[in-house]
Amino acid sequence: MSSWLLLLPFAGQAQQAGVAETASSVRTFVQAFYGWYLPKASTGGAGRTWQTALEKKANCFSPELRRRLRADAAAQAKVAHDLVGLDFDPFLNSQDPDPYYRVGKVVRKGQTYMVEIRRVVPGTAGQRAVLAEVGGTARQWYFVNFRYPEGPDLLTLLKTLEKSRTTSFR
Predict the structure, then answer these.
(1) Taking a C-beta distance cutoff of 8 angstroms, is the pair 91, 53 a contact?
(2) Which of 36, 51, 114, 129 is the most exposed place for a label (fewest CB within 10 A)?
(3) CA–CA separation, 102 vs 107, rounded Å?
(4) Neighbours of 25 (CB within 10 A)
(5) Distance CA 156, CA 146 (A)
(6) End-to-end C-alpha distance for the chain, whole angstroms
(7) Contacts of residue 121, Cβ cutoff 8 Å, sequence gap at least 6
(8) How far is CA 140 from the centre of its chain?
(9) DSSP 119-162
(10) Averaged over 93-103, what is the pLDDT?
């Protein structure tokens, strides 16, 4: 019985190490995505750079988020004279991207991880631009949603835009 007592602290340490390793894996995924994405957004402006990410990195998004973003892009493509879709970069929460962003805290919340994306402002800790919600497993992480400090999250916004397009075109 005393040998079990000796093993318990090691089991707890192993579990903590596994959680830290998973958070590190999530961080690596998010950093890789933003490392690829930010140069495109910075040179192309907010415009529709997110559509490039949707085309080139589709597996980085959950099926629902991918479907809703594609529907938004398709609706906007049909109406050249009016804005009926997203009017900002949903991954940077900006119309004019800052030159630098960094990945901040990674926190597990239920089955997903919340990852801070912070604008880098010289001389400050930076301002949180967006909270990226990441799901999946170490074999395949993907963005589930993006949460904004000042308003609704991306999925809610996409659902609202879809509903307004449906009622507007009746």
Answers:
(1) yes
(2) 36
(3) 15
(4) 18
(5) 10
(6) 72
(7) 98, 127
(8) 14
(9) E--TTS--EEEEEEEEEEETTEEEEEEEE-TTS--HHHHHHHHH
(10) 88
Q: Are strands 127-137 and 140-147 parallel, antiparallel or unpaired?
A: antiparallel
Q: What is the pTM of this model?
A: 0.83
Reading the block at residue 140, the tokens are 């395949």
Cα–Cα distances in angstroms (integers) from residue 32 to residues 37, 126, 133, 141, in the given order? 9, 20, 15, 11
Mean pLDDT calculated for residue range 119-136? 88
In degrees, rounded to 5, the angle at the alpha carbon of residue 46 between the alpha carbons of residues 70 and 130 is 80
> Residue 30 corresponds to which tokens in the numbers above?
């998010």
- Reported as a pLDDT band with limits 50, 70 and 90, residue 44 is low
Q: Do 101 and 92 form a contact (C-beta atoms < 8 A)?
A: yes
